Amino acid sequence: MDEMMAGEGMPKRRWQRIVDFPLVAMLIAIALFALALQTGVWLGQMVPPMDELSSQAIRAAINVGLVLVTYKMVIAHLGQEPRDDLRSKNALRDLGLGLGAGLLLFSLIVAIAAAFDVYNIVGYGGTGELLMDLITVAILPGFMEELVFRGILFRWIEEFAGSWVALLVTSALFGLAHIFNPGATWFSSFTIAVEAGVLLGGSYMLTRSLWAPMGLHAAWNFTQGFIFDVPVSGMDQHGLVEAKLSGPAILSGGGFGLEASVIALVVAGAAGAWLVRLSIKRGELVPPWWVKRRETLAAG
After folding, report:
1. Taking 70 as the threshold, does the pLDDT of residue 92 lie above it?
2. Residue 160 has pLDDT above 90, yes or no
3. For a surface tag, which of 100, 191, 228, 259 has the fewest beta carbons within 10 Å of its beta carbon?
């Protein structure tokens, strides 16, 4: 029997069922995100000449604004089960928890690295890069990357193939997305996949909101870069202190930074596993699409 349109007594047409299919909805969402982002880049090129900070802030506001409107107006309404993962309910709570978790986790990683004498403060830094780092290192990556990897890819891969496949695929893709960063190796991509992919995916599964992973992602980047002067995924930063990483790459992460160290792998990986386990206990594990469909048909 044809599926019934929500709120109406009319069966869905074939093209509507095709568009609503999880993988098709995901591809449409990716295309819409890319279009919004490209439009933002084009509009940003029209920003009149000014100081670098103001220019970056205006361009960031344009891009975030366009992507957010596109998500709220269209992407959130796609698929068989439309859902807004940037809803206002519990937004401040989830964002705050994510920010706090990111700060504490990377502070713990740095503390362990210091105990092993691979992280050392060698001088004073400054606050001159504070606002720039907030924009380019924290807000933009936290918002854009989480919307794509968790808000689009995870959401519809999970709807199609279940939570385990979504977690595996998005974590692998997240690690692979960092392979061309300065100082990157295949091991650094593996550590990013495990420590960040599972951690951020687990926070999304637990809260069913993008606010937590966005806050966690932003605070993680800002803490390691601006506060502790650690390279953020291979990109050098200017922090409150001047710090140096030394010793074996397995502990220091080499040129990529502490994210590529076994310290971050263990600490963040364990935290991510705990979030996933907690999600399962709370009944947030989603079965594959075909399993849900078979159960629905069996129920009559």
Report:
1. yes
2. yes
3. 100
